[in-house]
């Protein structure tokens, strides 16, 4: 897999997104994985109405017209990655000590293939050795029962976990007595959830894909859609074809902001006819989005003096509160400040405002470029303010639409993964399940790491994911995990989190989403919720990678039974037939009434959403304008604002190759994209090596050495590079005080030539 021997290349990419480059890349990938046949055959079963499995990639919804081959290059890669023929069995672990494996690259670790049986760390030999499932569960159960307090354990969720397993997982944690449920959402959309909850009384976006088909204007902020939500390209191209305006807001002009070959539109691919996917590009400085949106709102308010159609005053009066304060705030914010803080000219902001004014229906969509900041919550609320000004809510073709990450990260939260659960949910959970859920808040991702460091949390359970690499401050997080008495990783592939472990450690291998899940009542399906609140069933059909794998619900039930021997929860019965889990969920969860029937409709069902119907579960019962001051996001002299992001050939901590096709990079990940003038100031030329030093909020510094500098079209004062390598630079204390999210898109750094 490793391309390290190849020299790095950088050549700006001028082709449309998707298209032949994608086809070529997929073919090469399938050949390398030895999956040229099984891969494509499986993909035909993916995202299908009436059967098939949900793509384990991103959370972008399936096509509303039926699920005809709405697939993408990266979806194919994710599926193939899971379906590899390679295996990591007991012989592998017998042949390599953990210390030896720690010297391997992450790509080498993951590319060993699928895990096949439960393994326990044996300190005497520094190796993982086989352990039976009952023994593994007993180890977990004994350790949990031996804790002084249930809050000494934390239960992490990565967003692939299906809804049924999710429900059992949080039930186990709460029956044990803790709300310590950190999840990957603490690192991606916590800010969106908190902002939308405060403004609209819902933690989610209000639009669905049909709305995307009816919008006159789309404002797309801080997302690299061509790589991370590739099926959005279809929606963008179709919007362009019907004459919609598409405004991209991103310090980088990403591939999705230019043009595409619609991923499933093979006819056009053959004739090389690309469709545009953007009509205006704005390049704010890192963190400049809030000022930019404030500017658009200010322009709308100014326009209203002479243009009665500029604002929807009826909507504002009927459904909102706080408008006058917001108007005053916009008036008080000067154009100079807006221009300086956003890094976008007043003329360009006015152009975007004009597009907003002329559109009857607008959607604003955003991802991590907006959320992983100190002021992520304020920025999302500013976006909502702008939407409210023209009544872009609760009607077709309009509203907020955050782009979620992992395929079921939204479903995880819906089904109870929340370290700050609300009282009504806990009441119902307690009543229906006959438990007494703890009322005090639990720990999130950063809180868990700090607690492990202090010794307050001694058991860490990872339900999927690769915690040590995904989390900030890699050395700090590693030290925290090493202090644990027990770390348990439920995984499909070998990764770094198996090597950075507690005194005792377990690797519990599970079925992947593509695999057939047979239980006593027959083949089981699990449900997932996409980024637009559609819930549908996913049924794996591939023969499991090993006969020793258990499903995630079975693993959770096994741990729960061992830890709670007297539990009245019917753990075994739940695993025999997931319909029984769904029956319980339908009693506990809002919007899941008649779950078993509705989820079996061809396209599943959409969770009812009050804000969409202009019913607001906010303090005032109305949609609330916010009035936060603009933050100062201008880098101090000599420093740069650094955003960490994904490359094209990557799934979070899984690196498929060292290429980033749309950004024109080959064979290189240890790089930093910089503005050419910032390079010149530092005497740096393309491919020169530089040391990057971050300055944390507490003044401490962290460094990466010998990163290659790539000149890029990015505003002055801004720089970008790749996660997870750059997580070393994000101090554990550098999280937002608004969302508790690590500020992974806004690290303060200095860059200088390597010695
Ligand atoms: N192929 C693939 N797909 C994925 C993933 C993957 O790793 N690989 N990960 C999944 C997950 S879990 C998630 S959460 C999503 C993440 O999807 P994205 O949010 O697209 O993820 P990033 O790669 O972090 O890219 C963030 C984008 O924000 C921009 N940006 C940085 N700073 C700013 C800023 O201050 N303002 C604005 N407006 N933009 C900014 C960057 O230029 C970049 O385009 O993708 C999901 N889909
Ligand atoms: N600097 C920086 N850091 C970031 C981000 C950033 O933008 N910048 N983004 C953050 C975000 S948004 C996220 S979501 C996190 C990602 O954090 P995680 O979700 O923790 O990480 P992944 O890399 O997606 O996890 C990959 C592992 O999941 C396991 N796996 C795959 N499929 C399955 C399955 O079906 N079941 C189970 N049980 N396991 C499975 C495999 O063993 C694989 O090694 O990273 C965060 N970290
Ligand atoms: Mo994410």
Query: What do the pLDDT scores average to?
Result: 93
Instruction: Classify the secondary structure makeup into a structural class.
Output: alpha/beta
* Spans where pLDDT lies below 50 across 5 or more residues: none
C-alpha Rg (nearest Å):
25 Å
Oligomerization: single chain
Biggest β-sheet description: 6 strands, mixed
Order of strands, widest sheet: 6-5-18-17-16-7
Bound molecules: ligand MGD, molybdenum atom
Q: What is the CATH domain class of the largest domain?
A: Alpha Beta
Shape, per Cα inertia axes: globular
Q: How many discrete domains? A: 3
Number of strands: 33
Helix content percent band: 25-40%
Strand content: 15-25%
Second rung of CATH, namely the architecture of the largest domain:
3-Layer(aba) Sandwich
CATH topology of the largest domain: Rossmann fold
Number of helices: 31
What does this structure look like?
This protein is 35% helix and 17% strand. It has 755 residues and is of the alpha/beta class. Strand 21 (526-529) and strand 22 form a beta hairpin. The longest helix is centred in the middle third of the chain and has 15 residues, at 289-303. It starts with 8 loop residues before the first strand and ends with a strand. The structure holds ligand MGD (2 copies) and molybdenum atom.
């Amino acid at each position: 897999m490793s391309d390290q021997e190849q020299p790095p290349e950088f050549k700006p990419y001028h082709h449309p997104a998707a298209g032949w480059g994608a086809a070529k890349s997929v073919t090469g990938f399938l050949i390398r994985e030895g999956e040229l046949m099984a891969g494509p055959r499986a993909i035909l079963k993916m995202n299908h109405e009436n059967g098939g499995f949900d793509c384990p990639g991103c959370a972008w919804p399936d096509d509303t017209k039926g699920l005809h081959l709405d697939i993408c290059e990266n979806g194919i890669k994710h599926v193939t990655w899971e379906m590899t023929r390679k295996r990591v069995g007991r012989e592998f672990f017998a042949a390599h000590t953990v210390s030896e494996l720690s010297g391997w690259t992450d790509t080498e670790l993951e590319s060993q293939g699928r895990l096949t049986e439960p393994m326990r760390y044996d300190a005497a030999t520094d190796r993982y050795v086989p352990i039976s499932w009952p023994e593994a569960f007993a180890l977990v159960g004994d350790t949990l029962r031996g804790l002084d307090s249930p809050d000494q354990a934390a239960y992490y969720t990565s967003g692939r976990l299906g809804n049924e397993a999710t429900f059992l997982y949080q039930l186990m944690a709460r029956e044990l007595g803790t709300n310590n449920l950190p999840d990957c959402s603490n690192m991606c959309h916590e800010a969106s959830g908190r902002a939308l909850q405060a403004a609209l009384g819902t933690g989610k976006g209000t639009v669905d894909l049909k709305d995307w088909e009816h919008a006159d204007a789309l404002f797309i902020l801080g997302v690299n859609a061509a790589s991370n939500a590739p099926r959005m390209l279809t929606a963008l191209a179709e919007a362009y074809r019907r004459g919609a305006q598409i405004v991209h807001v991103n310090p980088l002009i990403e591939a999705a902001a230019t043009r595409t070959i619609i991923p499933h539109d093979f006819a056009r691919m053959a004739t090389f006819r690309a469709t545009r996917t953007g009509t205006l590009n704005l390049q704010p400085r890192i963190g400049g989005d809030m000022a930019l949106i404030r500017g658009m709102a200010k322009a709308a308010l100014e326009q209203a003096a002479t243009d009665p159609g500029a604002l929807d005053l009826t909507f504002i009066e009927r459904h909102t509160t706080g408008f006058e304060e917001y108007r005053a705030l916009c008036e008080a914010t000067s154009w100079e400040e807006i221009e300086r803080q956003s890094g976008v000219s007043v003329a360009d902001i006015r152009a975007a405002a004009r597009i907003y004014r002329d559109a009857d229906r607008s959607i604003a969509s955003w991802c991590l470029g907006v959320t992983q900041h100190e002021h992520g919550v304020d920025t999302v609320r500013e976006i909502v303010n702008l939407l409210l000004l023209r009544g872009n809510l609760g009607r077709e073709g309009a509203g907020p639409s955050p782009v979620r990450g992992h395929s079921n990260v939204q479903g995880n939260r819906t089904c109870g993964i929340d370290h700050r659960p609300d009282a009504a949910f806990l009441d119902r959970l307690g009543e229906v399940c006959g438990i007494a859920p703890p009322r005090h808040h639990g720990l999130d991702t950063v809180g868990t790491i700090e607690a492990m460091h202090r010794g307050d949390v001694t058991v860490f359970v990872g339900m999927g994911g690769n915690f040590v690499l995904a989390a900030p401050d890699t050395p700090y997080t590693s030290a925290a995990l090493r202090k644990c008495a027990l770390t348990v990783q439920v995984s499909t592939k070998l990764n770094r989190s198996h090597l950075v472990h507690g005194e005792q450690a377990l690797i519990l291998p599970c079925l992947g989403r593509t695999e057939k899940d047979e239980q006593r009542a027959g083949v089981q399906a699990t449900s997932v919720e996409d980024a637009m609140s559609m819930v549908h069933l996913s049924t794996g059909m591939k023969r499991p990678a090993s006969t020793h794998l258990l499903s995630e619900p079975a693993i959770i039930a096994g741990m729960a039974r061992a830890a709670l021997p007297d539990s009245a929860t019917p753990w075994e019965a739940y695993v025999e037939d997931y319909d029984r889990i769904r029956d319980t969920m339908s009693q506990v969860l809002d919007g899941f009434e008649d779950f078993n029937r509705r989820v079996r409709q061809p396209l599943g069902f959409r969770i009812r959403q009050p804000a969409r119907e202009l019913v607001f579960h906010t303090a005032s019962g109305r949609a609330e304008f916010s009035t936060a001051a603009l933050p100062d996001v201008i880098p101090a002299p000599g420093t740069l604002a650094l955003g960490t992001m994904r490359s094209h050939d990557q799934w979070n901590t899984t690196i498929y190759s060292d290429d980033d096709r749309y950004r024109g990079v080959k064979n290189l990940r240890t790089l930093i994209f910089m503005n050419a003038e910032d390079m010149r100031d530092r005497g740096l030329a393309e491919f020169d090596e530089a040391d990057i030093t971050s300055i944390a909020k507490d003044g401490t510094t962290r460094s990466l050495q010998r990163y290659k500098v790539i000149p890029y079209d990015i505003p002055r004062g801004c720089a970008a590079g790749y996660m997870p390598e750059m997580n070393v630079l994000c101090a554990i204390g550098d999280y937002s005080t608004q969302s508790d999210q690590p500020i992974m898109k806004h690290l303060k750094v200095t860059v200088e030539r390597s010695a």
